[in-house]
Amino acid sequence: MNHTVIKVSNVSRSYITELGLFKKEKKRVDALNDVSFSVKKGEIFGLLGPNGAGKTTMIKILSTMLIPHSGSVSILGLDPAKEFNLLRPKINFILGGERNLYWRLTAYDNLSYFADLYKIPSTCKKKRIKDLLTLVGLEEVAQQKVETFSKGMKQRLQIARGLLNNPEILFLDEPSIGLDPVSARQLRNLLRKLNNQGTTILLTTHYMYEADELCDRIAFINKGNLIEIDTPSNLKKKIDDLSIIQCSVIGASEPQIETIKKLQSIQHIQVNQQDFTYSLRIQTNEPQLVVPFIYDSMKNSIITDLTISNPTLEDVYVKTVGVNVS
Amino acid sequence: MKIAKSLHHTMLVHMKLSIARPMFKYIIWIMPLFFSTIAIFVYGTDSEQTLLHYVVLGSGFMALWSSIVFSSASDVNRERYYGTLEILFISPVPFAITLIGKILANTVWGLISLILTFIYLKIVFQIEIVLYHPWLFGLALLLVLLTLSVFAFFLALGFTLSRQAEALMNFIEYPIYLVCGFMFPITYLPEWVQGVSYILPPTWAIQLLRDVTAQNLSFQSVVLSCTAILLLTIVYVIIGIYCYRLMDKKARISGKLGVY
User: Fold this and answer.
1) Which of A57, B128, B205, B227 is the most buried (most CB within 10 A)?
2) In this predicted complex, what is the ipTM?
3) Which domains does chain A have, with CATH numbers?
């Protein structure tokens, strides 16, 4: 990791939407506000934020799909708004979800077509496709139509598509969305393998554990603003005075939960309810006060488990961005 | 060379994708048979020449038009739905090549449909199809395919920018059959409508095919149709290039390529 390959300086971007049938009213939505950051060669950089934070807009700008309204972007020394013809062969992007493939074609046909769109020479095309199918574990189903694939298989095929041109920089927009834990882990292993081979990766996600495990550096983004940028360990250090109390309670009433929420020692509380069970995740720097209070408040209810742990990246995120992350 | 390969591959992929759709199968295999049967009911007792011009060429041309223009244009919306439009748009091969590949794919299917119409009319209705000037017909057909492809390219750009363009496309498919005189001479239409007919390439395209299949070839009429087609093609190429550049920029400004 030495020189900067992505430099984003004061980028802003908004969308105009029209409302109404006859008298159309224009509404402006600011997707990015004065965002700046840089990514070094060989880094895995994560953009984290809730839905609508501006992550996809940033990926689209970086992958030459969108022009920013102000600010400047430089990727591998090229301006994606103007020098996209030179830049496109050197980068690629992968979107999360099941779309972005031709379902009525086989996995091989999909890759073969996209390989031609990326001008891959015929001399190495077949081998490249075979290697990529092996890399993503789809070599046995290469001649099957994509419509017969599971979501995880489609996602892996997308990864193979994104690697066809052996990109110097790979952009991934929520790559693990909808994947089961095993597929998500396979994906993370694959990304790490690519990164070890020298590919710079910029990914967006709202799965904190994924970012924590993968990224060298992370930027928190919310409502178009970049809030925090640092390594996962440095980010966690910022709240290492906090303790995390997690507990599950059966048969608690809403007033009991409200009583806990009002406790001054609690910095943040996240409550999830499933049937008769409440799950609480509490951030506090006074666990010695909070734990007895929970037991006192939950009389006539059953506390099935209670743990005190160190903060995770999710807790940093909750504290920084100030929203619930489930 | 790489561009030619991409064009060829795009064409093959989209031939596969198009014919996998039931609606497209209907357009290629079934619809021309309905049109030609209806045309036979209208012109059944007329001369061989009229049958050739308004039944064989008319219904065959309708199939060609539906396949090339209607399908090529709405293919862009389908890509949007598949989620592949953005990938095609930002791949190193220019998006124009992808569009041309799609148009070529549908042109091949349209030609197959045209030939199917000819065979159906010949076998089922025993219509005599005599091409007095086969070479001239071949050349005219090439010119016709070129002009329809250019027109299709122009319409496809509208689809790239706007999802609403599909409504317009559905709205104009059948009126074009009438306004361009696929099944009857446009002189039957009011004069102000004829004005519209003359600025649309399909009018001159079908006219040229009729000119070169006439028993008594009118050199003057062929030249007039060819000139009109060439001029309109040039005009639509210029508009197409301008619109393509505009689309290329506007798509990246509006950011709605992936929205369907």
Assistant:
1) B205
2) 0.81
3) 4-231 (3.40.50.300), 241-309 (3.30.70.3190)
